[in-house]
């Protein structure tokens, strides 16, 4: 079992460090390599996703990713910015399905800005497409009709892209409450109309799943009004970026949420994937030992479960995190005072 | 003073009917014409925005718009769908600035899904660009590299489009708390990078305004976590569609919120504009006298204020709506039992 750790920028190194300690403590003999990404890789090697990093990733069974994003790099040319590391990994490794479960943790019902009765009803999974949409279309600058400079980005989805993510979403719904809501903007976008047509088509293969469609503006409203109504949501890369962050915040503890990005490649005991906390690099608190590593530790658990087939070890980690929370070990994001190492120690002690 | 009423579809006719009664009761001698839009216009004249409707609109000082959207029309070709009426009016009349204030109404703090202390801090204005972005770029179908069908839509903004909306937003911030947050996705989109560069440029003309930038995914989180942090938000057409609906729902009373769409054309006493409630056509409750007409009545007040220079009359309407609320006249959207006509009567009685 081989995994690669990509600490990245900001709080990335601190939080992945704690996750590595947890994985090591399990004594599973997992081979762990480190690889540079993001602003850190740019500063060391001149590129946010060096070829060596990609090669190490390809030789492994899964990736534990910290975070990328560094204000120092905001004025670089686009292809050299830290964000290109995560976008490049998703594309190069065909990790097209981003799974983001959102559910209120026991004992944390009061941490959401939503009323406790609204927040505690949340138990949803967002399936976000990661390899297409306006993220990867042709983009650039040109001269507009009125002679001024114009920035443009082409949004698109083709049938095969929608089909493969729809299958992932329908299967996920089968394993949950059997309800799938596809979110688009078909009243304005042809990209969305094609998306909707293909989802309707694939639905025929999953008659046991109840399918509905919602416009993205309405979905953003419903995620505030009554997020408990959703089971699985499937949507494109751009709408998924917005809605999954919104949903995470509804849960009230963004420092707690993990995510998996999967493709079709199999490993010896599961599916190849990239796992990352959904919080960003938080440069303002980086290097101070203040960040909550729980989301990264939970991402490591997802990696063990989905890419290495180590379900029992994943259960142990998740239980230890749950116990630490119950015992009041709360990071600053949750109004507590526990620092990065202290939280790591607390989880280790409860493994 | 000439205005045109466009009832449209679903609950549109019911709610505009109440607003017309309120305007008439003011005795200002305003000339009101009706014009067909949306699915209703398609059914009667074969087009969602008939040329006669556009001509009547052009000859008036402002438009009071109900809602468009009719499930019967969902399978029509895109250019014949009800939504094209509102998109067509915005574009043909160069109504490029959509202003959506969101603030909790006194006495309605408990109607938001957000905690009362979070909801009651909301006092923001979203300035959404309406004439550009992926809404109006080239769109269609083509064959993808893998031979399957692909839907595409081109997103773009040129400098002149961003400049004019930035001026509107900076001026709005000057008239409020002096803080402007520009929302984009500049870490991925060139359209956003150009947007950001132009906003930074225009900022030089407004040194008294404090400008910040936020990625759209973060903005969707912050609107849940702490919406009270915002004063004015300026953003493009697509992100504005999503975030303004989300913000409205944070307020907890989407049946109460009005919006104005303005351009540069002046009327005798103000600016030409289109005014509409932000709720949609709600086909499920249409024709039953259940819809809350308050958002449309408040839209009429905005029309009087901004397009007709009738500030005193607008104040009277807003005060009457406030009073009706205080007296417990609540529509079903607010957990009350008052119907459409009853709410209209209650506002009329308090004018
Ligand atoms: C860093 C950025 C490019 C990325 C995205 O937009 O996909 C991030 O927001 C995410 O959701 O993983
Ligand atoms: C009806 C639809 C085309 C429209 C939009 O997306 O602009 C609506 O959602 C709005 O916000 O006014």
From TrEMBL, chains A, B:
Cofactors (names): Mg(2+); Mn(2+)
Binding annotation for NAD(+): 280-292
Record-annotated site: Important for catalysis: 135, 185
Reactions performed catalytically: (2R,3S)-3-isopropylmalate + NAD(+) = 4-methyl-2-oxopentanoate + CO2 + NADH
EC number: 1.1.1.85
Gene3D superfamilies referenced in this protein's UniProt entry, alphabetically: Isopropylmalate Dehydrogenase
Keywords, in A-Z order: Amino-acid biosynthesis, Branched-chain amino acid biosynthesis, Cytoplasm, Leucine biosynthesis, Magnesium, Manganese, Metal-binding, NAD, Oxidoreductase
InterPro entries: IsoCit/isopropylmalate_DH_CS (IPR019818), IsoPropMal-DH-like_dom (IPR024084), Isopropylmalate_DH (IPR004429)
Localization, UniProt: Cytoplasm
Record text on cofactor binding: Binds 1 Mg(2+) or Mn(2+) ion per subunit.
Residues that hold substrate according to the record: 90, 100, 128, 217
Keyword check for Metal-binding: yes
GO molecular-function term, one example from the UniProt record: 3-isopropylmalate dehydrogenase activity
Domain Isopropylmalate dehydrogenase-like: 2-347
Quaternary data: Homodimer.
Family of the protein in this entry: Belongs to the isocitrate and isopropylmalate dehydrogenases family. LeuB type 1 subfamily.
Chain's role: Catalyzes the oxidation of 3-carboxy-2-hydroxy-4-methylpentanoate (3-isopropylmalate) to 3-carboxy-4-methyl-2-oxopentanoate. The product decarboxylates to 4-methyl-2 oxopentanoate.
Protein known as: 3-isopropylmalate dehydrogenase
Species this chain originates from: Novosphingobium cyanobacteriorum
Lineage: Bacteria, Pseudomonadati, Pseudomonadota, Alphaproteobacteria, Sphingomonadales
